[in-house]
Amino acid sequence: MANRLTQIATRTGDDGTTGLGDGQRVPKDHLRIDAMGDVDELNSHLGVLLAEPLPEAVRELLVTIQHELFNLGGELCMPGHRLLQDEAVLRLDQALAEHNAALPRLMEFILPAGTRSASLAHVARTVARRAERAVVRLAAQEAVHPAPRQYLNRLSDLLFVLARVLNRANLDGLGGDDVYWRSERLARQQAGGEHTTD
């Protein structure tokens, strides 16, 4: 494993390459670098979300996720190494089930909107999906453990659920419920009291 950073401006990347954790240098547009960058961006978005007022349970969960994403990025940085454990995926499954169970059933598609914290969770969700796609592309070319892909898949689902939780927490006074897409079907339901069971 390469040494930890002791300085930031090394100038070694001026030739369009960057170093991996095992010492090899690859082009900066390498699929592995794309995946690492998307995971880093995702973690940064969670940092912005953590700057918002949040329920304490959500805050603690997101801090844990940030550490696990750092492990995930480290695993991508060191081909052949495994840092993200299966237990991390199971923790997301448990959090997803717990938070989803407390939410009402969705009536229709929802918009990525509401409170600032919910909207930031939706942004992070879309970046998680992009990071997942990047890992899938990388895995089609090189050996990658399944846990990173599975983790990002679960995390995007969890962030969708947490956005709904944060709208209901309504800590900035601008939410309170999901922001539904105004489909014709929903408009009919609201106007005529139509009920569906699908």
Automatic annotation (TrEMBL):
Entry keyword set: ATP-binding, Cobalamin biosynthesis, Nucleotide-binding, Transferase
MF-aspect GO terms: ATP binding; corrinoid adenosyltransferase activity
Keyword match Hydrolase: no
Location of the region described as Disordered in the Swiss-Prot/TrEMBL record: 1-24
Source organism superkingdom: Bacteria
Catalytic activity as recorded in UniProt: 2 cob(II)alamin + AH2 + 2 ATP = 2 adenosylcob(III)alamin + 2 triphosphate + A + 2 H(+)
Residues annotated as domain Cobalamin adenosyltransferase-like: 8-165
Biased composition (Polar residues): 1-10
GO biological process: cobalamin biosynthetic process
SUPFAM superfamilies membership: Cobalamin adenosyltransferase-like
InterPro entries reported for this sequence: CblAdoTrfase-like (IPR016030), CblAdoTrfase-like_sf (IPR036451), PduO-typ (IPR029499)
ATP-binding found in the keyword field: yes
Signal sequence coordinates: none
Family annotation (Gene3D superfamilies): Cobalamin adenosyltransferase-like (1.20.1200.10)
Assigned EC number: 2.5.1.-
Family statement drawn from the similarity comment of this UniProt entry: Belongs to the Cob(I)alamin adenosyltransferase family.
Subunit structure: Homotrimer.
Name of the protein described by the UniProt record: Cobalamin adenosyltransferase
Species annotation: Ideonella livida
